[in-house]
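Re: [ENG-882] Designed sequences occasionally contain unexpected residues at chain ends

Forwarding the minimal case from QA. Structure tokens:
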């Protein structure tokens, strides 16, 4: 049986300082925030189904999505390769499913407390 191909977006999101470097004549950026964002995205890709999901660091959630009395996303703890050693990394998962696609997943919602 052939598995249906899923198409969609996944994100890993973190915030922090980046350092510009030139590699082979091309300007690139390096920094822990990129490493964390990449590892968060990799964790999203292993979910079921992985499409239309984002994992964001606690700092991004707190600074951009934490509103008084409103909960955005689901709090999770993930072990990220080479981040915090063996300790769990606190992050938030957000469902980004467009409501018009007819998927069984629900569109992003905000829960009132």
């Amino acid at each position: 049986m052939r598995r249906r191909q899923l198409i969609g977006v996944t994100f890993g999101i973190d915030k922090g300082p980046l350092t510009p470097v030139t590699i082979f004549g091309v300007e690139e950026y390096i920094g822990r925030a990129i490493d964390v964002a990449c590892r968060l995205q990799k964790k999203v890709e292993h979910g079921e189904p992985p499409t239309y999901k984002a994992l964001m660091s606690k700092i991004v959630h707190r600074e951009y999505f934490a509103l008084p009395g409103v909960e955005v996303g689901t709090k999770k703890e993930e072990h990220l390769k080479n981040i915090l050693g063996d300790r769990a990394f606190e992050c938030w998962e957000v469902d980004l499913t467009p409501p018009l696609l007819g998927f069984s997943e629900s569109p992003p919602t905000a829960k009132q407390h």
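QA comment: On inspection the terminal residues look reasonable. The two ends are 44 Å apart (CA to CA). Proposing we downgrade this to a documentation issue.
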